Amino acid sequence: MNSLEQAEDLKAFERRLTEYIHCLQPATGRWRMLLIVVSVCTATGAWNWLIDPETQKVSFFTSLWNHPFFTISCITLIGLFFAGIHKRVVAPSIIAARCRTVLAEYNMSCDDTGKLILKPRPHVQ
Asked: Which residues are modified to N-acetylmethionine?
């Protein structure tokens, strides 16, 4: 394989990698927004739950029953984590990190957008 073919292969790989990472961005943004909204709802509900003087006087489950906003948002947040939202919000970073691991064997790397970074060849002495 000559250097021209190698350059074309690298360009094709880079183009496909950047395209793939770029296509993940909208979905990642939506997952991040969902996580932020549910986290803020949970924090707000937790604050209201904690400052309620009735919470200290009743049992734990009764206090949760008295604060359905907190209970539902907390269950939703836990459900999202079980569904893997923590992986979905960082999916492009995971892909880039895995590519960096593989590309390191070939003295290359890539940035978070998928652009290839060619490293100088190590000098063998």
From this structure: 1
